[in-house]
Structures are given as C-alpha cells and as structure tokens.
Amino acid sequence: MLRLFNTLTKTFDEVRPIEPGVVKMYTCGPTVYRDAHIGNLRSYFMADWIRRALLAQGLQVVHIKNITDVGHMRQEVLERGEDKVIAAALAEGKTAGEIAEFYTERFLSDESKVNILPAQEFPKATDHIEEMVEIVVELERKGLAYEVQGNVYFEVGSFPGYGKLSGNKAAAELLEAVRVEVDPLKRDARDFTLWKKAEPGRLLKWPSPWGDGFPGWHIECSAMSIKYLGRKFDIHTGGVDNIFPHHEGEIAQSEGFTGEPVVNIWTHGQHLLADGVKMSKSMGNSYILSDIESQGIEPLAFRYLCLTARYNTRLNFTFSSLKAAQRGLLRLRNMAWEWSMLPSQNGQNEADISEWHGRFMERVNDNLDLPGALALTWEMVRSELPPQAKLEAMKSFDDILGLDLNRGERAYQVPQEVKLKVSDRSDKRTRDDYQNADAIRNALSEEGYVVQDARGDTRVRPKTAWEKRQEAWHSFSSSVEVPSLIDEPDAAELTIGMVACNYLSDVQRCLDSALNWVGDRNVEVVVVDNGSADGTDRWLEEKAAVEPRLRIIHTDHVLGEGAVKSILLKQARGKTVVMLDTSVEVSGDIFGPIEDALGDSTIGVTGPFGLRTNDLHHFHDGEGESGFMDAMQAYCFAFRRARLKDVGLPRETFRFYRNLDLDYSFQFKDKGYKIVADTSLPVQLHEHRVWSALAEGERDELSKKNYRRFLDKWGDRTDLLVDSHHSN
User: Fold this and answer.
1) Burial class for 462, CB neighbours closer than 10 Å (0-12, 13-18, 19+)
2) What mean pLDDT, rounded, does the chain reach?
3) φ, ψ for residue 605 (rounded to 5)?
4) What is residue 726's DSSP assignment?
5) In a shared domain, residues 391 and 437
6) pLDDT in tens, 462-515
7) Regarding predicted confidence, which is higher, 570 or 174?
8) pLDDT of res. 281
9) Would you say residue 361 lies in a domain?
10) Distance CA 222, CA 212 (A)
11) Is residue 519 part of a domain?
C-alpha cells in the first residue's frame, strides 16, 4: 500500500483508509484572480498521482479541491483588508464574480490539458460562508476565539498544539514568519483572523453575528473539508508554502472545532524553481501553461518533467529540461504507436507483465518514487519483453503516470491522400525505386508529416507543433547555451545590437531606421529575439533572408534582461557595439560621432541619454547637456567591443530591464573608463511599451528590486562619481 511522508508526524505513513475501501482527500485549490502558474500545477500533480496510485490498488478516492474566490492569498493581505479578486476585477473592469469565474474555467482547462483527474467537488469559498461562520461561532463559544470591534481572532495561546505541523512553536519564530505589522486589536501578535470587519465600500461582504464582514483565509478550508469529507479524513495535500501559516491555522481551527485530530496524513509538495530561483511575478519567471504551449511544446511534457523528481524535493524548471522531457515523451509515444500496430498475443507473457507491474508499484508505493517508476518504464521499454507485452505493461504504468502514452490512431489521424502517398512510396521501395520513394518522403515532410519505417511496415503521423518549430530555427533556453565570441577578432566595423520581444512595429521602426543611416560601413546587425510570440520572430527571419547584414538569435522563452543582453554581447563581432532599444528611432548619422568619441581610449561608454547623481540614491538625466556622466541610459549605449574582456557582461540577476543600465555603466566606471553623453546624436524616443504595459505597482516593485541590487554592489562607491573637474 502507498506510503507518504507525513509532514505532521515527520514519518513515512501508510495510507490506511478510515472508511474501509474509501480514501478521502482534500487539496488546497487555486485562488482565482489570475492563472495558476506551473509551480501550482506541480502541487496538483502530486495530489493526482496519489489519487491514481490509490485507484490502481482498488481503492475508491473521494477528492475535494476548493476554489478560493474570495481572494485571500496571504494572511498579511487579509490583515490589511485587501482582496486580490477585487483588485483584479477593478483593474480589468469586471466584477469580482466575473473574474473569479473566468479564471476558474482557465484553471479547470489547464488541469485537463495536463491530465489531472477532476476532483469530485470544486467547492467555492463564497458558497460556504454559512459553514465558516458556524465554525467561528463555535470557536468563540469554546474560548478559542475572541471578537474586537467586529473582527474575530483565533487565540493561538489557547491552543497548545499550535505549531506542531510547521515546528514554529516559539513566539519569536511565529512573529518572524508572519512578517506583518502587528494588528493593535489582537491580544497576541500570533493570533490570526477568523472574520474581518468589512471596511466602508467593500464589494464582497456577508452578514454575521459580528456585523458585515468577510472570512479569514484559513477558515474556508476548515469549513469545506469538514463539510464534504467529515470530521475525520485521510489525506490533506498542498504546497510547502501552505504549511505555515495556512495549514497550521487550519489545524488549530478544525481541531478546535471538532475537539480531535481531523486529518491523518498531511502531504506537501516542494517548490518548483525556475532557472534556479523561486518562481515569482517580480522575477518575471512565473510561467503559466500557455507559455509552454506558445513554444509548440505540449502541456504533458511538463507533466513528464515533473515525474523526474520526487514531489517533496525541489525541481529546477528550465526550458532546456522541458525540451528534453518533450523528446522523451515523444519517444515513448512513438514506441507505443509502433507496438499498437502489431497483432495481439492473446494473453501471452502475462506473468512477465505482472512482474513488471509489481516492480512498478513498489516504486510508486515508496512515497511516490515516480522518478524510479519512470526509470523502470524505460528499463521495461529496452527489455527483451515482446513488443505487445511492452504495450500492455506501458498501459498499466500510464494509468498512474498519466502521460497519455497509448494515443495510437487517436493522435495520428492523417488524410486519405497522405495514406495513398505512403502506400505509393512503399510500392516504390518494394521495387527498389529508392530515389522516388525518398522524394515522396521529403515531400510529405515538407507538408508536415513524419514517415517512419519499422518492422517491415511504414507509419505516418503529423509533426507536432514543437517539431515544426524546431525545424524552423534553432532557439536557446539560456545564455549559457550561447557560445561566446568575445575572444574572436573583430569581423566588422560596427555591431548594431537589439533585443526584440514582441511589439513588431517598434522592432521594424528601430531596425529600418538604423540601417538607413549606417551608410557604407562594414556593419552587422545582431537581433536577439527574446521569446516573441506575436510574429516578430517570423518577420525577423524573413528580413534576414533578404538582408545579409542581419543575424537573428532566438530564445525559446522570455529570458531576463541581463541574460539576453549577455547573449547579444557574446555574439557581437563589430569593433564598436551600439545597443539600441526598440523604442528608439535613428533620425541621422549617430554612428560617426559615436566612433569619434570612442577613439579616446579613456572613454568607455557614449550615447545621447546620460544620467547624473550626487549620492547614488537619486539619478537624474543630464538636463540636456553633453559631457561626463555617471551612467548611460540603455536607449542607446555604445562602447568598444574590446572593453568586454575587462568589463565583463551584464549581471544576469537583473531579469527586469530597469536600472540594469546603471549597473552596467558602473562596471565600466569600476575599470577606470569614463562615460560621456552627446545630446546632439539624432535619435527620437517613442513609447517604451514594455514599461507602459505594466501596472504602476508592478513598475515600482520591479524597479525597486533592481535598484536594491545596484545599491548592494555599488552603494559605497562614491569615488566613481563624476568630479567637478570633469564637467565641461
């Protein structure tokens, strides 16, 4: 039987159903104010694999997954009386109910795409306010909660078991974990909100014995789990970020209400990292399923990737690893497709299949050792087992893996005219007419079909979107994959470098205007297409086909600004490098004056948009003046390529573009180079669409984080600032 690591007991506990033959499981579901990111989906995979493992062993599973449509994502948000559903609704001009319904449907669609079995119930928080109030009333009656001015708080000090799940028992630890300003209405800073009084004008509020208000974050799961699964059930799942304070609070509420333990096994999935760091919106790496689909990679490739690490260990998501998962998934599917075309063996090799299945279940039952189970699947595939038996074993494995491996003809329907061409090709091969047979195969490939010869038969299937994309052009998943040409000799007088990320008209304007003014110089234009999804990538390829000076480097997703600038600079081969932002339009010869300025070996960077500062904490533009500056804005940032050998590349910790130019300017200054502005350079600035597309709060958050990175490194380097004798 399945054993799972129990976060509560810190032991590996066997699932022993309270009700014989029936396992009751509750999963903390999504807060529906935006799309669930792939880190959320990894947590839901864990619950799905638990459920599939139990079903495979003859158990019935009652699975409940709540929908938080009130919007209390974090306790500190609740303490401030904020609601993310409401905030999102206001931002999009919709009601809270409309936006919650929209993202609920998106979530259910995403779960379907990755083969997560739908829960029996998806109860919504707003439909269960009455049950929440009932629990709060009982907790207050028992002396475990108290009311102050319409707010009701759980009194942590009255519940001795608080902290047993997370291990946060000391008051200091709990205070540190909460990380919010203490509510003066609380008796103890550790106490948490069960019911919050509605502030004037609040949209979502309900009547209660304490006046109009809204429920706390933790209380909804207590109410819905108990309503649908009873006062005692088997498994509760969630992500590790739910352990404290959410699940800790839920245990206190539920056990305070019932008077006894409610959940037997608490199981938590670990974080999904992205490029080695925690996923977050502020880091720009909070990927959603459509980001994967936009690369032509199928959602189930992400499920395959998550099979390669245990649910309770961290997994580092990269697009390189996702591509490898897609290749592995296609290989398994193609083998199953091949085996499905062979005649069945009518019960032969059943003992061997049973042995493989037993070994597979041993891995699964060992705390969901799915990496071991996947490795065993490949071992079985490469074994001496007959192909038909392999197919049967794979089908039983896939009941748990959930990769839809046995698609067969369902996935590979082809038109009759294609089948006739394949038949014609087979006839030609039979007559040793390989030249014409190969011509048919090549023609079918151009039409988007894969033709495979195996075991005396020929199969044909449509190419996947990912295969078509891979054929169109190569794309990189990180700056590490891109070779550096910095040590290579100059191959041109000038490199015009650009980063394109959607906004095709801006890319066209910038590129065409720059080429219009380069004259007869020996120039190369290097454009890094940073995961564009609006057709910019295709336009650039078409442009490069007729413009020999243009070279395109594609990334398969949007990389951070530091990483993509590093790619650009590693690939530049011009003696002088001029980096242009796509919001810039060149309206005259900027290149001659730039080359003249950089003829002075003491000058590191030049451009038209200089910045000055007195204390490193407040930068301002050069007030229309030319001369020595403290930094150069990235709209037009020019330097000698040879400087890269001692200055180095931009720091890749800057995922957002804002303030990266300050940081990179100081890398030049640190090596003794000066920065000079020439405001006469003929350039025109247009709307910076990456900036204008962000909400004001996002701009502030991303900019401040990058500014802190800058100050952490350069905050005490006032020696690098422009001295008075440098001014003109």
Assistant:
1) middle
2) 91
3) -135, 140
4) G
5) no
6) 888 778 877 888 899 999 999 999 999 999 999 999 999 999 999 999 999 999
7) 570
8) 67
9) yes
10) 21
11) yes
